[in-house]
Amino acid sequence: LTLYSFSTENWGRSDAEVRALMDLYVEYLISERNLFYENNVRFLHIGRREGLPGPVLDELDRMTESTHEHSGLTMLLALNYGSRGEITDAVRSIVRDTHAGQLKLEAINEAMISSRLYTAGLPDPDLLIRTAGEMRLSNYLLWQISYAEFYIDEALWPDFDVTHLHEALRCYAQRCRRFGAIGEP
């Protein structure tokens, strides 16, 4: 489960709003810690660390470290995340290794690129749920969602509840996923 909560573009909001959101992240990470423990949830952060306030980084690190051995659901918090930035960071990493002689040009393929993304080692999403009736991707997991199924719901995010989630999952379960093949999956 990946929650897109604050994009790199969201820094353009007012200083007061950004500060309030950052305070909410700290509060959320502290208040939900026991829930993560009780439900064996592994927590990961995706996005750039640069620019995030120290208290937010401290809580992200604390939650990540304290749940790293959990084997249940993995929840990613996309905070200070932008897919174009993620892909740029991956390309820079590959170019650095190529220039250093640690990587041959011929070794660069889709798997190599995937291994340099923030989501390295995690499966690509099967389902992308978009709330508020929005019909755009908003710079979110552009590489990873190449074969994801989309579900658009009119509910605003704060109102999207378990009933909405169950409907999205029912809809998803009826789809035939072929990943480019013809006929049965």
What does this structure look like?
It is built from six helices and five strands. It has helices spanning 15-31, 33-38, 54-67, 83-99, 110-115, 162-173; strands at 2-7, 42-46, 74-81, 127-130, 149-152. Helix 3 (54-67) links the parallel strand 2 (42-46) and strand 3. The model has no long low-confidence stretch (mean pLDDT 95).
Helix proportion: 25-40%
Largest sheet: 3 strands, parallel
Gyration radius, in Å: 18 Å
Q: What's the arrangement of strands in the largest beta sheet?
A: 1-3-2
Number of helices: 6
Low-confidence stretches: none
Structural class call reads alpha/beta
Morphology call: globular
Terminal CA distance: 24 Å
Task: Indicate the proportion of strand residues.
Answer: 5-15%
Please provide the count of β strands: 5
Instruction: Summarize model confidence as the mean pLDDT.
Output: 95
User: What is the N-to-C succession of helices and strands?
Assistant: EHHEHEHHEEH
Q: What's this, in brief?
A:
With 185 residues, the protein is of the alpha/beta class.
